Amino acid sequence: MNNLLSLNINKKLQWRMIEDINWNYLAKNYGGNVNGKNVTAYDKVKDYCLDNFTINETILVYNFIVEKREELKEFILKYQEKIKCYLSDDILWDLCSHIIGLGESMYDLVKTDPTIIKNISPYVVENFEYGFTAAIYEFHLSNDDDETNSDIER
Question: Looking at CB atoms within 10 Å, which of 32, 49, 111, 128 has the fewest?
């Protein structure tokens, strides 16, 4: 059986792995020129994944993020009319990904009170998920899918 399929990470651990990235800090502090190079918040997510996760962990957390983004997107679409917050598909994707990057408590808060979206949407930074796809690409480039460095027991 493929190691990726047999690796079991529970949802609480996946949320903790997301929260350890500290997207709130990254989104506020990156997105401009750093030492002559444009560094985005998602560049820092990529770096975090490469430094702290294996390729399998990165893929599993990425898949979890996509699953949660889709759930949140459907939830927000149901409430768009009620909260008078209309978003394009692209902004909706960025918003959902941003909320997930902020962690489980923010995700739960939005699911409890969708009106909070109006307060969050002006601060959305593109795009928490991009760091994961960039990390997966770099892992594949380096052919580094060695599971021996796993920190999965956190």
Answer: 32
Contact criterion met (CB below 8 Å) for 137 and 49 = no
Positive or negative, the CA dihedral 32, 33, 38, 41 is negative
**What mean pLDDT is reported for the chain?**
85
* DSSP strands (E only) in the chain: 32-34, 37-39
Half-sphere exposure of 76 (CA within 13 A, CB side): 29
How far apart, in whole angstroms, are the C-alpha atoms of residue 15 and residue 28? 20
pTM for this predicted structure: 0.82
Q: How far apart are the first and last CA of the chain?
A: 24
The pLDDT of residue 131? 95
In the numeric block, which tokens belong to residue 19?
């929260």
> Contact at 8 Å (CB) between 154 and 70?
no
Please answer whether residues 128 and 100 qualify as being in contact, where contact means their C-beta atoms are separated by less than 8 angstroms.
Answer: yes
